[in-house]
Write a structure and sequence with these properties.
Its cofactor is Ca(2+). The protein is of the alpha+beta class and 807 residues long. It is built from 10 helices and 45 strands. Among the domains are: 217 residues, Alpha-Beta Barrel (TIM Barrel); 89 residues, Sandwich (Immunoglobulin-like); 92 residues, Sandwich (Immunoglobulin-like); 120 residues, Immunoglobulin-like, CATH 2.60.40.1110.
Length: 807
């Protein structure tokens, strides 16, 4: 049984605060050292080993206030200066604790942004948290002392957090040092390392580098289950080959080295994993994991939450209340989920223990969401991940006989018969059957109830999918001399009242325009001026389900915006004010010539904001420019320096920094060392233009969710889907928000904001722009000192990998 980090941490109710230690005292929000020791001893006495979740990589970050603070057990620390007197080692080995000198100081404490740079990943700050220098003998002594104390208390295994951020040689050295202190071989210490593999990141931080020290987590497993259970589980047939066979995949993790899970406590809080919120699919995914022989299975037992950061029910800043699980788990409606008691879990754990080490064989599927397989004659499982029951005759290597269906019940009141190597069964919707050789009426333990009361009801999902954006903008060019135009629209018997909604216009390109509510369904439209009609000869014009832009002209409907939308170039100027700025109040004078040779007439523009560096101006100009010229000046020509030039990058922005307190002839095109802006919140506006107009493809019956979204993340936020819930004249429009951000920019100017356009939601049927990680450039970000926030706006085009920062 694995337990949450037992060490003292920062105060706070969010679950993640337990992963910010301020000392290695075993006094945490979960209890005292004496209580922890008593739990370990009691569990060991009953044959249950304890695995401790161990945080060695970091201490605290921006979640704590500046200056001196105290942890949940009262230990003082200062997250601003890097002083943590509570990390003393055993027997007060280092009485003054640790200081800033005991942490890495990569790029003056910069956050990680470039995961292709191994040094930055392993020495930079993760989510602003101080990063222990694990190559230091002092740090190794303190951390191996902590592990030794846990081991000597009876802890039998260790789950090491955030290991990709620790050099593999350092990790091995700490384990070896601990092994010497406890007098055992390092190979005999059960050791799980959280290493999130990503082939697009630095080779030195991949899971394979840590296999000499212990096993690793296999995050591809939960992602694959998530994609297939939300698509077609028949595609799981070759799972162990795809993610576990090195001859097929150089980044594979062999079964003996892999720790697998459906979600863990972290991935459960974000998109990209199956959780209890997915209803019966969650129990089915866990059943598959426990039946299919790949990796070491890890089951989560957690609680219900509405906000992803929420800590345990009733948690305060310093304590989690005790829970009587016999009472709490006596109902399926409690705050705690009690997964360990569910009938489906109990049955599948027994199944797993009986068939462990056997390969899946005699795989059978219907090409969609019904699968079955045997486990070398010792067990058989059939899973129905569809909304209708499945009648089938399955082949199995199980001996003939009558077996208990351990997925459905725990008292053997429901059985499955094998006859002549065949099973005729009806598998109910969103349920499974599971039998194994050790569970017959004669051998199955006697239970007083068929189903544990904590077990959730079976939930049959409604798989009807509507577009995220349920509106359509209509452009209409009339061939008649109408003074005004109405669009009359509807579906079935639900239509607007005649004459309909009046359209805007006519505009300079001759179109009338109106955005209408289609309710996410196929829709019909026609036009009139209050008397005369254009209804396509009485047939009406048909808008397919999910289409967000249409034009109607000369009796024909086309998908997309028929009008030309002008491209733009963006200039972003950061100006640290000169000493006379209070009275001078300078702005930016801009001029230039676009790529077609057209002149941009000079214009004086005021600075419109202020960031951590100084004043900010962000003008945008119609047209494509390769360079923009500018002067920092008042409109009366009180200048700082002379003419300057800003080169426009491929993403459409020219970003520069001018230090008014320094030399007046210097213009920087990369952020200076003192540009360290932070934001409590970052709002990113994402535009996406598809030439085919198919943000939602109603004709694709093979995909559960046939629409595009953007999978986005940064160093401080796990991935989530930003949905195109609206649109503008350019294309689809999505919004994404991030918290607690600190500016990092890689050497090539990219930020750590990922922007992957994907089709099919969690199925990941297709990606647009290529298979590599696609990042937003740092020039998209504009910080606002007054509100401690930042914004960004980006544009993406179908079949183009660039994330543009200007339209």
């Amino acid at each position: 049984m694995e337990v949450s980090p037992p060490q003292e941490s920062i105060r706070g109710t969010p679950w993640r605060t337990s992963y910010q230690p301020v000392s290695y005292r075993l006094d945490s929000k979960l209890g005292t050292e004496a209580e922890f020791k008593a739990m370990v001893e009691q569990c060991n006495a009953t044959g249950v080993g304890i695995i401790a979740d161990v945080v060695l990589h970091q201490t605290t970050g921006s979640d704590v206030a500046a200056g001196e603070q105290t942890g949940v057990a009262g230990t003082r620390y200062n997250g601003t200066t890097g002083d943590y007197p509570g990390f003393t080692g055993e027997s007060n080995r280092y009485p003054d604790g640790v200081t800033a000198a005991d942490f890495h100081d990569y790029n003056n404490g910069a956050n990680i942004s470039d995961y292709k740079n191994q040094q930055e990943v392993q020495e930079g700050r993760l989510s602003s948290m101080w990063d222990f220098d694990t190559s230091s003998e002092k740090v190794r002594q303190i951390q191996s002392d902590y592990l030794t104390k846990l081991y000597n208390m009876g802890v039998q295994g260790f789950r090491m957090d955030a290991v990709k951020h620790i050099n593999n040689e350092d990790m091995k050295a700490i384990k070896d040092q601990m092994a010497r202190k406890v007098g055992t071989s390092a190979d005999d210490i059960y050791w799980i390392q959280e290493v999130i593999g990503n082939a697009n990141e630095a080779p030195g931080i991949q899971p394979r580098n840590y296999l000499g020290t212990g096993t690793v987590t296999q995050f591809d497993y939960k992602s694959d289950l998530n994609a297939k259970f939300k698509g077609k589980i028949a595609a799981l047939k070759d799972l162990s080959t795809r993610i576990g066979d090195l001859s097929q995949n150089p980044n594979a993790i062999e079964s003996k080295d892999a720790n697998v899970f459906v979600p863990n406590w972290d991935t459960a809080r974000n998109d990209g994993a199956i959780t209890y919120k997915n209803g019966s699919m969650y129990a089915l995914a866990n059943a598959f994991m426990l039946a299919y022989d790949y990796g070491t299975s890890r089951l989560l037992s957690d609680y219900k939450y509405d906000v992803n950061d929420n800590g345990a029910p009733g948690a305060t800043e310093t304590a989690v209340p005790d829970v009587d699980f016999s009472q709490t788990c006596s109902t399926k409606d409690a705050d705690w989920n009690c997964q360990q008691r569910w009938t489906t879990t109990r049955g599948m754990i027994a199944f797993h223990n009986y068939v462990h080490g056997t390969a899946a064989e005699h795989w059978q599927d219907d090409g969609a969401n019904s699968i079955a397989f045997s486990c070398s004659g010792k067990g058989f499982v059939a899973i129905n991940n569809s909304t209708e029951s499945k009648e089938a005759e399955y082949s199995t290597t199980m001996p003939d006989g009558e077996y208990c269906d351990v997925y459905a019940i725990q008292d053997c009141s429901k059985t499955v018969t094998v006859s002549g190597g065949k099973i005729k069964a009806s598998v109910p919707a969103m349920q499974a059957i599971a039998i194994y050789g050790g569970a017959t009426k004669a051998t199955h333990p006697d239970f007083k109830v068929a189903v544990d009361p904590s077990t959730p009801d079976v939930v049959i999902p409604n798989n009807t999918v509507k577009p995220d954006d349920q509106t359509t903008t209509v452009w209409y060019k009339s061939t008649k001399k109408w003074g005004k135009v109405f669009v009359h629209h509807g579906a079935g018997s639900d239509w607007t009242a005649v004459p309909g909604e009046q359209m805007e216009g006519r505009d300079a390109q001759g179109y009338y325009k109106k955005t209408i509510d289609t309710k996410g369904e196929e829709h019909q439209i026609c036009f009139n001026d209050g008397g005369d009609w254009d209804s396509d000869n009485g047939k009406n014009y048909l808008i397919a389900k999910g289409i967000t832009q249409v034009g109607v002209e000369n009796g024909a409907l086309s998908v997309g915006n028929p009008e030309a939308v002008t491209g733009q170039t963006r200039l972003l100027v950061h100006y640290k004010p000169a000493s006379d700025e209070f009275t001078a109040n300078r702005g930016v004078y801009v001029w230039g010539k676009d790529a077609a040779g057209a002149e941009l007439a000079g214009q004086h523009l005021a600075f419109t904001g202020e960031d951590c560096y100084g004043k900010v101006a962000e003008p945008k100009f119609d047209g494509t420019f390769n360079n923009l010229n500018f002067i920092i000046t008042t409109d009366g020509w009180n200048k700082f320096g002379g003419d300057r030039s800003a080169k426009v990058a491929a993403d459409g922005t020219a970003e520069v920094w001018v230090d008014g307190t320094g030399a007046d002839d210097v213009t920087l095109d990369k952020a200076p060392a003192d540009y360290r802006c932070t934001a409590q919140k970052v709002d990113v506006t994402i535009h996406y233009m598809r030439n085919d107009g198919l943000y939602f493809n109603a004709a694709d019956a093979d995909t559960k969710v046939p629409q595009w979204d953007v999978w986005t993340w940064n160093f401080n936020t796990n991935g989530f889907a930003a949905k195109f819930k609206s649109h503008d004249d350019w294309g689809g429009l999505a919004l994404a928000s991030f918290n607690n951000y600190a500016y990092p920019a890689a050497a090539d100017g990219t930020s750590d904001f990922g922007m992957l356009r994907r089709y099919g939601a969690d199925e990941w049927k297709r990606k647009d722009g290529g298979d590599d990680d696609i990042k937003m450039t740092a020039s998209a970000l504009v910080f606002d000192k007054a509100t401690n926030s930042a914004k960004a706006e980006v544009w993406m085009l179908q079949d183009d990998s660039t994330v543009y920062t200007a339209r």
